[in-house]
């Protein structure tokens, strides 16, 4: 018997906004806090909390600096972050495939509980 | 729609947005287009009196190649006053062009907030430059050939295609996500070395001295891969074909049919470089317009 795809879901990554942060970070060398806030339509506080969760799980690196006198926060994805993102997307695809074949989806995606 | 489907749709939307926002290739296309179009200005014609036709030494052997033989060709382009200027010009086109491109992407990242990693772009230029400048003389020295390597394709072509194919496989293998750091580093080093050998073997055939065009083409293809841009990939392929044509074919034969028959190096070089330069300038305009309409 094959493992159920929900077993491939990581609680840290399986959250709409954290998945979004990892997706954008995986597409770039680094991404700025303001860009993420606008792209994900989050408040600064919410985004900051999500980034902290991902940083503590070693999925993101955070780099603070200045552009002239303006403070900037940049985030970049780690190798572990790329692996976690790829696993999550593979698990989601498998879930969708199962659903399309008429099997019930056992675990809905979590909403943004923190925001 | 299921929650999983919604998440996947969100991922796709964000991915498309990030890719769109970090694209910035209109600038390097414009920059290289202008620099290539300006190159003929360096091919200042030599005064006929500067060559001694009575000495018994073939006139080609009387012309110094300058510091970068890979950027100095044979045929109608050699009777020039400042061969060193030509070599330095093409060398600086590559160095300044690639560094300016990396600077441009970084500057854009500060403005937009999302940055493309240009390291692979710079490394590809370094491998191609090393292949053409250092690899060609090394290959000619080390590989035994009946006459010259140029006239022995049975030796040079297997080196060219063999090293290119193995480099592609090794680089693909090394850049897989689950590769250990030490294996990744070793794979990248070996892949780049093999790519340099492939560029060197290709350089053996680039006798007109326009190998800089192929360095630009290689860089554009890598940039297209980094940007995940089919449009830039298409422009890179068309430019690569035009660059090969400029390096391997006397384009004056085509202009001859149109009645434009110059006998001086500058217009001859302009004929040779016109198509690749126009591909880049048109490509820059297309990329800029498509980027504007996507936003």
> Main interface pair?
A-B, 32 and 27 residues
Beta-strand portion of chain B reads under 5%
Structural class of chain A: alpha+beta
Tally of domains of chain B:
1
Question: What is the subunit organization of this protein?
Answer: heterodimer
**Largest sheet features of chain A:** 3 strands, antiparallel
Hey, roughly how much beta strand do the residues of chain A contain? Answer: 15-25%
| Number of extended strands of chain A | 3
Instruction: Determine the mean pLDDT of chain A.
Output: 84
Shape of chain A: elongated
End-to-end separation of chain A in angstroms reads: 38 Å
Note the total helix count of chain A. Answer: 4
* Spans where pLDDT lies below 50 across 5 or more residues of chain A: 111-115
The secondary-structure class of chain B comes to mainly alpha
Q: How helical, in percent, are the residues of chain A? A: 40-55%
Give average pLDDT of chain B, whole number. 90
The total beta strand count of chain B reads: 1
Give me the strand/helix succession of chain B: HHHEHHHHHHH
Q: Describe the main β-sheet of chain B briefly.
A: none
Residue runs with pLDDT of under 50 for 5 or more positions of chain B = none
Judging from the principal axes of the Cα atoms, what is the shape of chain B? globular
Report on this model:
The complex is a heterodimer of chains A (115) and B (295). With 115 residues, chain A is of the alpha+beta class. In chain A, 47% of the residues lie in helices and 17% in strands. Chain A has four helices and three strands; from the N terminus they run αβααββα. Chain A has a three-stranded antiparallel β-sheet with strand order 1-3-2. In chain A, a hairpin with a 2-residue loop joins strand 2 (60-67) and strand 3 (70-77). The model of chain A is unreliable at 111-115 (pLDDT under 50). Chain B is mainly alpha-helical and 295 residues long. Chain B has one domain (23-294). Helices cover 69% and strands 1% of the residues of chain B. Chain B has helices at 3-22, 26-38, 83-112, 119-142, 153-174, 181-203, 211-227, 230-248, 252-257, 265-294; one strand spanning 114-115. The chains are: A alpha+beta (115), B mainly alpha (295). Chains A and B meet through helix 1, strand 1, helix 2 and helix 4 of A and helix 1, helix 3 and strand 1 of B.
């Amino acid at each position: 018997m094959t493992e159920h795809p929900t077993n491939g879901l990581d609680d840290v990554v399986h959250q709409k906004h954290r998945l979004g942060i990892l997706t954008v970070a995986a597409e770039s060398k680094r991404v700025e806090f303001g860009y993420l806030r606008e792209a994900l339509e989050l408040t600064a506080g919410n985004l900051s909390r999500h980034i902290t969760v991902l940083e503590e799980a070693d999925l993101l690196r955070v780099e603070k600096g200045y552009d002239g006198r303006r403070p900037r926060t940049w985030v970049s994805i780690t190798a572990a972050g790329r692996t976690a993102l790829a696993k999550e997307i593979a698990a989601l695809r498998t879930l969708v495939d199962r659903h399309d074949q008429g099997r019930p989806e056992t675990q809905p995606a979590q909403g943004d509980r923190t925001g | 729609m299921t929650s999983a489907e919604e998440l996947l749709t969100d991922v796709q939307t964000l991915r498309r947005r990030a890719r769109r926002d970090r694209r910035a290739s209109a600038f390097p296309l414009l920059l290289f287009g202008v620099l290539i179009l300006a190159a003929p200005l360096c091919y200042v014609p030599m005064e006929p009196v500067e060559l001694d036709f009575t000495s018994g030494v073939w006139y080609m052997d009387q012309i110094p190649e300058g510091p970068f033989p890979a950027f100095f060709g044979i045929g109608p382009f050699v009777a020039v006053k400042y061969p060193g200027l030509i070599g330095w010009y093409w060398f600086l086109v590559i160095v300044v062009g690639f560094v300016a491109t990396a600077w441009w992407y970084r500057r854009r990242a500060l403005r937009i907030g999302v940055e493309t990693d240009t390291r692979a772009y710079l490394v590809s230029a370094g491998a191609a430059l090393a292949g053409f400048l250092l690899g060609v003389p090394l290959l000619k020295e080390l590989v035994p050939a009946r006459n010259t390597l140029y006239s022995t394709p049975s030796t040079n072509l297997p080196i060219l295609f063999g090293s290119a194919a193995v480099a592609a496989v090794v680089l693909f293998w090394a850049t897989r996500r689950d590769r250990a750091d030490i294996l990744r580093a070793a794979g990248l080093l070996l892949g780049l070395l093999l790519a340099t050998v492939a560029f060197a073997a290709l350089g053996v055939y680039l006798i007109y001295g326009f190998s800089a065009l192929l360095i630009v083409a290689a860089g554009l293809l890598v940039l297209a891969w980094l940007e995940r841009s089919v449009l830039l990939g298409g422009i890179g392929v068309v430019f690569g074909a035009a660059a090969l044509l400029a390096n391997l074919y006397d384009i004056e034969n085509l202009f001859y049919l149109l009645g434009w028959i110059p006998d001086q190096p500058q217009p001859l070089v302009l004929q040779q470089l016109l198509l690749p330069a126009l591909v880049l300038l048109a490509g820059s305009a297309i990329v800029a317009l498509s980027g504007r309409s996507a936003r």
